[in-house]
Amino acid sequence: MDKVLMKGNEALAEGAVRAGCRAYFGYPITPSSEIAEYMARKYPKIGGTFLQAESELAAINMVYGAAAAGARVMTASSGPGISLKQEGISFLAEAELPCVIVNISRGGPGLGGIQPAQSDYFQATRGGGHGDYHIMVLAPAGVQEMMDLAIEAFELADKYRIPVMIMAEGTLGQMMEPVVLREQVAEFYNKPWATTGCKNRKPNIINTLHLSPDVLEQRNVHLQNKYINIKLREKRAETYMTEDADIVVVAFGIMARVARKSIMEVRKQGVKVGLIRPITLWPFPDDVVEKVSDTAKIFLSLEISMGQMVEDIKLAVNGRRPVDFYGRIGITPNPEEVSKRLLMLAAEEGLR
Amino acid sequence: MTKGSLSFSTERCKACELCICFCPQGILALDTDIINVHGFHPVSVSEPEKCTGCGICALMCPDLVITVKRE
Amino acid sequence: MKIVAQKPESLTDAQFHYCPGCTHGIIHRLIAECLDEMNLRESAIGICPVGCAVLAYNYFNCDMLEAAHGRAPAVATGVKRMLPDRCVFTYQGDGDLASIGMGEIVHASARGEKITVIFVNNTLYGMTGGQMAPTTLLGQVTTTSPYGRTAEQAGYPIKIAELLAQNEGSAYISRMAVNSPANIRKTKKSIKKAFQTQIDRKGFSLVEILSTCPTNWGLSPIDALKWLEENMIPYYPLGEFKVKEDMQYG
């Protein structure tokens, strides 16, 4: 199959186009802007809607309107912009409007920096805005996956009527790799709930206000049941050499690739290390972690953040094994320092 | 003079009196013998034969209480 | 006998929750009458604000969305861009539109977004209990300007119709009032013109409507209409501020 050399952000944008997304509303921010630029070039040629919004708030609310109208719609940003979008994401989650939100992530807090980071993990996986909700979060680890998970994100969003976030470090957005272009999605979900004008039917209402306490509770129970269903069906992770591993690294996105290199190095020195790469950050693949904890002796959460994923690993392991952490922020840990950390851990635990 | 006819959705009335104030014939009043479900004395027409069906009462009514017919 | 006035089809049977004498109900009816008369009900998609009209989706008998505070013009933009042949309108109060939603409304207007905005100005935040709004008049007492609004402390009331008329993308901008039968009839005509502006794809349309809040003004409904006439109209003059007849967008 023919491969095309593409930048991560562009592969993601092209994936969205192939998923039938014909609407993009966004606001420029490094390191995500190439997605908007790609759509600005592409959509006029294929009959899509690109609109540069006046703010992140406006962009996410345009997404709300377009999703309500039944369209496949996307927006992309990075940390500070994603924070601004949280109001709208809470509304989207409660209104059960499908859409794709991309976070080409950089380091915070505050304005932070523009170097890749994973420090929006809590924000992404805990809901992020006000109220009791989750969105689905997918974490690609390569440029091919930027395209593939973009397509998958739209399918999941429509299937479950839920906002889906793709969270990829700035590294993935900016780097180039050969990509197999996927087929255009041809079948779409019916959306009888969409507000498209009430010709030949009763009016549809899309609303997130529930002043009656009973109704509000019912809505929350409904959302929780949906989340339980998603947890049952959609947890995804990739494992690498976990079968005989004493030390199991848990790392997602670009850090999983760093981890693989280190694992190969460290294995040469006789330390049995494996990898779990969560592909869905929410729902977190705790089933995989739990299963591996039958044989693994210790887990290491490897992050470009200050230990945010440790909580999810600990919840999955449920006290059966220790969970260690190595991470940096602003600076992506390189394979050498990760190998060093793994060897040190092996020595401390008597695994060499 | 044209002849009008009014009917009232009495339960919707909040007794704001805008219709009463603007009726050119001055023939509307709150019916103090009735209290509706919201606790208001609703509007009624005291001298229906004088109604011209001008529709100003319905125009001023914020609560869709009044239906106006005219000959 | 023929029917002169009755509930329009574009309103549901639900009873308004508004306070006695509040003119939101009149404005709802005028919009619904325009939708009926222009045969727009089945193609209409309305966006509600946050504020007193937050429950308007229960009243309009067409597809309705509820937006976050101030974001209705952005939501309307998303809907309209996807469904350009539908009639998309927002219904917003002065806190929603002129304060927290100022960014969204100015840019929707600047883009010439082909939507219709019904902007209800009653000089304060009604739903939250009568706090000062950007539209509160100088000297006006509210719960957060308890000694009367001063320019020194809170600046000057914003004139939205004049402000938005400056934007090239605005095709129809007016300010009307619902304080008398004559003004109510004019308001209806203006709403029709605004919808027609959208249908003709001329650009952005907005009707600012001076409205009363008897409860938070502490006045009877009748006195509130007088207060509107004597205090609001002198500062917020009525009329059409922009009527773009010739230019065709898109």
Classify the secondary structure makeup of chain A into a structural class: alpha/beta
Predict the CATH topology of chain C.
Answer: Rossmann fold
Cα(first) to Cα(last) distance of chain C is 46 Å
The span between the termini of chain A is 44 Å
Q: What is the helix/strand order of chain A?
A: EHEHEHEHEHEHEHEEHEEHEEHEHEH
Helix content of chain A: 40-55%
Rg from alpha-carbon coordinates of chain A: 21 Å
Q: Give the overall shape of chain A, derived from the CA principal axes.
A: globular
Q: Which geometry of chain C do the CA atoms define?
A: globular
- Look at the structure and give the CATH class of chain C: Alpha Beta
The helix count of chain C comes to 9
For the record, the CATH class of the largest domain in chain A is: Alpha Beta
> Which percent range describes the beta-strand content of chain C?
15-25%
Q: How would a textbook summarize the main sheet of chain A?
A: 7 strands, mixed
Level-2 CATH architecture of chain C: 3-Layer(aba) Sandwich
Structure commentary:
The complex is a heterotrimer of chains A (352), B (71) and C (250). With 352 residues, chain A is of the alpha/beta class. Chain A has two domains: 3-190 and 206-234, 3-Layer(aba) Sandwich (Rossmann fold), CATH 3.40.50.970; 237-349, Rossmann fold (3-Layer(aba) Sandwich). Chain A is 43% helix and 20% strand. Chain A has twelve helices and 15 strands. In chain A, the strands form three sheets. Chain A has a seven-stranded mixed β-sheet with strand order 3-2-4-5-7-6-13, with helices on both faces. In chain A, strands 10-12-11-14-15 form a five-stranded mixed β-sheet, with helices on both faces. Chain B has a single domain (4-70), classed as Alpha-Beta Plaits (2-Layer Sandwich), CATH 3.30.70.20. In chain B, the strands form two sheets. A two-stranded antiparallel sheet of chain B has the order 1-4. The relative contact order of chain B is 0.40. The model of chain B has no long low-confidence stretch (mean pLDDT 96). In chain C, the strands form two sheets. A seven-stranded mixed β-sheet of chain C has the order 3-2-4-5-9-8-10, sandwiched between helices. Chain C has a single domain (24-243), classed as Rossmann fold (3-Layer(aba) Sandwich). Chain C is globular, with a radius of gyration of 17 Å. With 250 residues, chain C is an alpha/beta fold. Chains in contact: A-C, B-C. Strand 9 of chain A pairs parallel with strand 3 (63-66) of chain C.
